[in-house]
Design brief:
Blueprint (H helix, E strand, L loop, with lengths): L5 H13 L3 E2 L2 H6 L3 H4 L3 E8 L3 H13 L5 E4 L8 H9 L3 E6 L1 H4 L4 H15 L8 E3 L19 H8 L6 H13 L16 H4 L6 E4 L19 H6 L7 H9 L6 E6 L8 H29 L2
Helix pairs in contact: 1-12, 4-5
C-alpha cells in the first residue's frame, strides 16, 4: 500500500517545492497575468471535492503546513452538511470554487439547472467570492455540464435570473450590469463575476494537465469528458506517468513540464488500510464501466 496515500501525496508536494515549482491557485493566475513571466515553474493544484469532505480538509492542512495554496472545487448535494469543512479550508487560505454539475443533475432542463447553479453559487459566496469554477464530468450522464454555457441569453432568461430569489442583491446587480455591457449570445459565467473555468480558460498549450482520474495518472482511456486535445502531443514528448513515484522521479530528473495543473480527488488518498482498499475496489469497478462508455461513445462518433 504505497501509492494514493496522503503520505505519498505529501512527498510529491515536497519534491515539487524542492525543485522550485511555485504553487498558485487558479484565480491568482487568471487575475494576474504577469505571474506567467514572473515564475518559470508553476503548479496549479486543483482539488475536485465530490465526497469525503473530511479527507479534503486533511489534505488542505497538509498543503497549508507546506506553505502551499490550492483551488478547491466543491460538488454540493442538499443532504450534505459541509459548512464546517468548507469554512476551515477557506480559512487555511485555499481558493474556494464550485464543482458544478447542474446540467447533468437536472437532466438538461435549462431553467432548473440555472436555478440550481445560482443557489449553489450564492451558498459558496458565503465563504468568500467565487472567482473560478470547474465542471463535474458526470461520466454516467448523457448531459455535459459545460452545456450550461450554451443556453441562449435572451430576454426571457435574463428576467428569469433577475427574479431568482436565491441570487444575492449584489450578484443580481452585477449580473444586470454585465449583461448590459456585453454582447454575449449565450449564458456565461463571467456575468456572475466568475473569472475562469479551466476547461475554457486555461491555455493547455502552456500548461500540462495531470489528473488522478481512474486512480492513476495516465487514466486517459477511462476519461469520458475530462479530455484535453494536447494529450497526444504530451504522449509523444514522454509526459506519461502511471504512479505518483513516476512523477516524483520525473521531477527530480528534470523531465516534468515546467507548468502544470494537477487535479486530485481527495477521496482517493488514504493512509488507513480499510478506506484505501475500499477506494481501490470501487475505482476499479468505475474504471470498467467508464471504459465501456468511452468505447461506445467512440463507436457512435465514428458512425
Amino acid at each position: 500500500m504505497q501509492d494514493f496515500t496522503t503520505n505519498r501525496f505529501k512527498l510529491l508536494l515536497k519534491v515539487l517545492r524542492e525543485n522550485k515549482y511555485c504553487f498558485l491557485p487558479l484565480y491568482e493566475l487568471v487575475t494576474a497575468p504577469g505571474l506567467y513571466s514572473k515564475y518559470q515553474k508553476i503548479i496549479i493544484l486543483r482539488h475536485d471535492v465530490e465526497e469525503n469532505y473530511s479527507n479534503a480538509l486533511k489534505i488542505a492542512h497538509i498543503e497549508y503546513k507546506l506553505g502551499i495554496k490550492g483551488s478547491y472545487y466543491f460538488r454540493l448535494s442538499p443532504h450534505q452538511n459541509v459548512n464546517t469543512f468548507i469554512e476551515k479550508i477557506a480559512q487555511l487560505g485555499h481558493e474556494i470554487g464550485y464543482h458544478y454539475d447542474d446540467f447533468s443533475v437536472c437532466k438538461g432542463n435549462a431553467k432548473e439547472a440555472i436555478s440550481r447553479f445560482l443557489g449553489n453559487l450564492a451558498y459558496l459566496n458565503h465563504f468568500g467570492p467565487i472567482e473560478t469554477i470547474s465542471m463535474e464530468g458526470a461520466p454516467l450522464s448523457k448531459y455535459d455540464n459545460r452545456d450550461l454555457w450554451k443556453i441562449p441569453l435572451n430576454h426571457e432568461l435574463i428576467n428569469f435570473i433577475l427574479n431568482d430569489n436565491s441570487l444575492p442583491p449584489s450578484l443580481r446587480t452585477l449580473f444586470y450590469e454585465n449583461v448590459r455591457s456585453s454582447n454575449l449570445k449565450t449564458l456565461h459565467y463571467n456575468l456572475f463575476n466568475i473569472k475562469a473555468e479551466p476547461y475554457f480558460d486555461l491555455d493547455f498549450a502552456k500548461f500540462f494537465y495531470l489528473t488522478d482520474t481512474g486512480r492513476c495518472w495516465n487514466g486517459f482511456k477511462y476519461s469520458v469528458r475530462d479530455k484535453i486535445p494536447q494529450y497526444q502531443e504530451w504522449i509523444r514528448k514522454g509526459y506519461v506517468y502511471h504512479s505518483t513515484n513516476d512523477i516524483i522521479k520525473a521531477v527530480n530528473n528534470h523531465k516534468f513540464p515546467p507548468r502544470a495543473m494537477i487535479t486530485i480527488h481527495p477521496q482517493r488518498w488514504h493512509d488507513k488500510p480499510l478506506p484505501w482498499i475500499k477506494e481501490l475496489i470501487g475505482q476499479n469497478i468505475k474504471n470498467t464501466i467508464k471504459y465501456f462508455i468511452v468505447l461506445i461513445n467512440n463507436f457512435s462518433g465514428s458512425n
